[in-house]
C-alpha cells in the first residue's frame, strides 16, 4: 500500500533523508489505579523485535506518583522508571522473544484514584515493513513543504487488541530524528 505525508519545516533549514523500517504493534489504554494498587499487563514480543517501549502518563490526578516496571519472561527486571510523578517510560532494546510483564504501581494517589494513559509498543519485521527511497535527499528551508512517500507491506493483521502501524522518520545529516510520520493500518487484505 502506497502512502504519503506532506511535511512542512517550521524551524531552521535542514538537509535530511527519510528512513522506514519494521511495522509496530501498540496497545493503548486509559485505566484507573488507586494508591497501593498494582496493574499488570502482559505483552508477547515476537522474534526480531527491535525494541519494547512502555509509556505511562497523563494522570487525571496531577499529584499522582505512578511507577513503571518491566519484567522479561523469566521474571528478570529489564526496565523501570520510578521518579516522583506519573510520567514514566521504559525501553528494552532488542528484547528476547517471549512474554513480558509490565506493572504500574500507584505509589501515591492523593485523590484516591486516578486515570492514566498506558501504551506499550514494539517494532518487528515479522509484522511487515515500511519501505522508503532513503537515497533521495529531502532538503527543507524554513517554511518549505515536501511530500514523503512510502510503501507499507503488512504480513498479517497483527495481534488482537493491538494497533498495527508504520512509521517514517526524517533524519538530519547527523542521523538525528528531525520529524516522523505514522500510518495506522486499519485493515489488511490478502
Overview features:
190 residues, 10-stranded antiparallel beta sheet, Immunoglobulin-like, Jelly Rolls, 2 domains, 4-stranded antiparallel beta sheet, 0% helix, Peptidase C-terminal archaeal/bacterial domain-containing protein, mainly beta, Peptidase_C_arc/bac
Binned, the helix content reads under 10%
Strand % is over 45%
CATH class of the largest domain, please? Mainly Beta
CATH architecture heading of the largest domain: Sandwich
Q: What structural category arises from helix and sheet content?
A: mainly beta
Mean pLDDT: 94
Number of strands: 16
Tally of separate domains: 2
Walk me through this protein's architecture.
The protein has 190 residues and is mainly β. 0% of the residues lie in helices and 64% in strands. It has no helices and 16 strands. Strands 1, 2, 3, 6, 9, 12, 13, 14, 15 and 16 form a ten-stranded antiparallel sheet that branches. A four-stranded antiparallel sheet has the order 5-10-7-8, with no helix packed on it. The protein starts with a strand and ends in a 5-residue tail after the last strand. The mean pLDDT is 94. Residues 1-11, 26-40 have a biased composition (Polar residues). It comes from Streptomyces lacrimifluminis. It holds the Pfam family PPC.
